[in-house]
Design a protein that fits this description.
2 copies of one chain form a homodimer. The first copy, chain A, is mostly helical. Helices cover 67% and strands 0% of the residues of chain A. The interface between A and B is large, with 42 and 41 residues. The structure holds a DNA duplex (30 and 30 nucleotides).
DNA sequence: TAGTTTTCCTAAAGGTATGAGGCAAATGTA
DNA sequence: TACATTTGCCTCATACCTTTAGGAAAACTA
């Protein structure tokens, strides 16, 4: 019997594509096994279990996102950088909804620390260099930006804005204007 | 055989409590049947299927949340109202993590329209009466507020802010200060 | 009290996850 | 090239969750 050439890496990538195609919660070892024309139990040689696959996809997504983000903010500053970073998240979520959903799974602290999560925080902080914020306001602002990016994308994709008089693209750019204005005029404690 | 007194309503409430206790994704018909000491198949007399239970919990959560929100904003205006509404979401999510997770499930349009979703949008809009915004900026602002509330709560509960130098309570109140300032100084298009 | 409806049951089939143990293909060694 | 070892995938077995179909007993209704 010819070998399918399974690899942890190939499985996780295939899982990510599957997630984008059918939704992250539909990603199952069975579906993956079907795709490779292999018995489900065979996957256990490469993956600890179903959870392992899911965190693998999550870490992959975080990595890809961080790579894109690093590209986007390089050589930009101020509102330019803010917009670029924000668009990275939004575009990625639209292009890869399954991966984006995966990136939201709760990871245990060590896994999270080992992953690309810290890179994200660092890049958001880098953007704030173009604005005049000192600690602890900088941290507050990092968290606010993270909340807006994540919250907006989630609601937009979940259909929360669907009954849409002004289209969401318009709201998105006005939101970025607003955030820029806010960061330039951060209220004192 | 004594009857268990099953009801669609009781089942959904029990499901909501179960969700808060063990997590929304662990809510299963089997677990619910065990709790009522009843065969799983018996539940199908009251629930269409597993999905039906989940959307039921989601609608319940949206309803409860809207009730609390309505209470909170009544008789308040401006930043006072903004803070009260924001705290409703955050507190509810902390008190009822399973229900809050349920409230995020994607509902098909008719179900969503029949539910309390519209009340939420209306209340957010009501808050903006205390600020000087006209359409379409008002809609943009509604969406921004929704994004921040939802995004912040999700990230906070998901441990995204865990490595916490300034504690999250501090960030939360500074975030509300910032939003208030932003709404008072909304940048022109 | 007889009939109807409602509520719960048993039985059965199908999908997913996971573990134990086995054969065969690929790779290393003489 | 022959043999040994490792590794990749398989079969078998178990267990849980979901869903459908049909039956019996309780509760309501007339």
């Amino acid at each position: 019997m010819a070998r399918a050439g399974l690899t942890r890496d190939r499985l996780i990538r295939a899982g990510a594509e599957l997630a984008d195609r059918v939704g992250f919660d539909q990603v199952t070892l069975s579906a993956l096994a079907r795709q490779f024309e292999v018995q489900v139990a065979s996957l256990y040689a490469h993956l600890k279990n179903s959870q392992d696959l899911k965190t693998g996809i999550a870490l992959l997504a975080l990595e890809e996102l961080a790579d894109r983000a690093a590209d986007a903010v390089a050589g930009r500053a101020g509102k330019d950088a803010l917009t670029a970073l924000a668009n990275v998240y939004r575009d990625y979520a639209h292009e890869h909804p399954g991966r984006y959903a995966a990136a939201q799974v709760r990871l245990d602290p060590e896994t999270a620390a080992a992953g690309a999560g810290v890179r994200h925080a660092r890049m958001t902080r880098a953007i704030l260099r173009g604005y005049d914020l000192t600690e602890p306001d900088q941290t507050h602002a990092v968290r606010l930006l993270g909340s807006v990016f994540h919250g907006y994308v989630t609601l937009e994709m979940g259909g929360g804005f669907s009954h849409s008089a002004p289209d969401t693209q318009e709201t998105w750019s006005r939101t970025l204007d607003a955030l820029d204005a806010l960061l330039r005029n951060w209220p004192p404690a």
